[in-house]
Amino acid sequence: MQTLSGRTIIVTGGGSGIGAAIARGLAEHDVRVGIADIDLDAANQVAAEVRANGGQAHAVKFDVTNRESVAAGIAEVVSKFGNLYAMVNNAGISAEVPFLDATEKDWNSTMTVNGLGVLLCMQEAAKVFIKQGQGGRIINTTSITAKNASANFAPYAASKSAVSSLIQSGARALAPHNIRVTGFAPGIVDTHLWKGIQQDNITRQLKMENYAKQILVGRVAVPQDLVPTVLFLVSSGADYLTGQVITVDGGMVLS
């Protein structure tokens, strides 16, 4: 596989959790990383860590639900580092709510960030790739809930099904421009999202232990577990892969 050295890759939601782990992992391979997050302070902190470890990173404020913000953020990273090579659309939100209690607000907020936000980032990155004329990579974070939905995460699961669908439609639409569109589907990952969902640390720990019993490898994931898959998807080793989602769940869902 060709080296990733010197290539520019943007990671949305890069200020924490899976996104931050991806940004750090890419930087370790000499990628120039655009760390995009609606929380600019968090993005700046991760960027500072990357630079302190000898990597190249630039933090940029990104509201994935606003096309102008997305376009401006991509342009800022390209201006800083040069041509864009790949876009990792990882930003997302989640909330636990029983199926019968899910409200219009729950649905709209989740679908706007997780669904529309991914579409806008895909479109604006693709425009840059097409203008550059050298192809590109788009990698979306979906979830095992897209095909194995939980009763208490209906809006989230639906939004991740939308992301999986966008991977397929994007792959078909962008193939003539040599743009590969793929994704990865994590299982249960111990991130800040879970910390936010479970305010009670004891309840959260018990849930994590219960989930671990359902996973063949015997534990829930940590963000670093997803990094090797992303490294593969942005590499030349994935040149013949598009429109597909790789499940990375430790054997929680078998299909």
From TrEMBL:
It holds the Pfam family adh_short_C2. Residues 7-197 form the Ketoreductase domain. Gene3D superfamilies: NAD(P)-binding Rossmann-like Domain. Keywords: Oxidoreductase. Transmembrane segments: none annotated. Coiled coil: none annotated. It comes from the Bacteria. InterPro entries: KR_dom (IPR057326), NAD(P)-bd_dom_sf (IPR036291), Sc_DH/Rdtase_CS (IPR020904), SDR_fam (IPR002347). Belongs to the short-chain dehydrogenases/reductases (SDR) family. This is Meso-butanediol dehydrogenase/(S,S)-butanediol dehydrogenase/diacetyl reductase. It comes from Glutamicibacter mysorens.
